[in-house]
Amino acid sequence: MHTVIIGRRWFQKTYGNTYHSVTVVVDGETVGTCPMTYGYGDQYIQTAHEMLVKAGKFAGDYSAFCQDRMDHRDRYTVTVSDVARQKDL
Hints:
The chain is α+β, with helices and mostly antiparallel strands. It has two helices and four strands. About 25% of the residues lie in helices and about 45% in strands. The protein has a four-stranded mixed beta sheet with strand order 3-2-1-4, covered by helices on one side.
C-alpha cells in the first residue's frame, strides 16, 4: 500500500491564523479530501491520519501512524506547499 498525502497551508495575515487543506491518495485512489481547516505546522498530517482511519486504511492511533511513517518511509509520500491566497487551498 502506498499513501500520498498532499497538504497546503495558508496564513491569514489579518488575524494571524493558519489553515490547511489536505488530499489523501492510497494506491492511486483518493480516499479523502479536507478543503480547509484550522491548523498550523504539520497539522495536515494529523488530518490525513483521521481520513485514513475513517476510510478504514489505517487502524492505529496517531502515534502508531507516525511510527509507521518512520518505519516504512517507502510507503508514504508527503508533500506540502504554502499558498499565498485562501482560494488556493
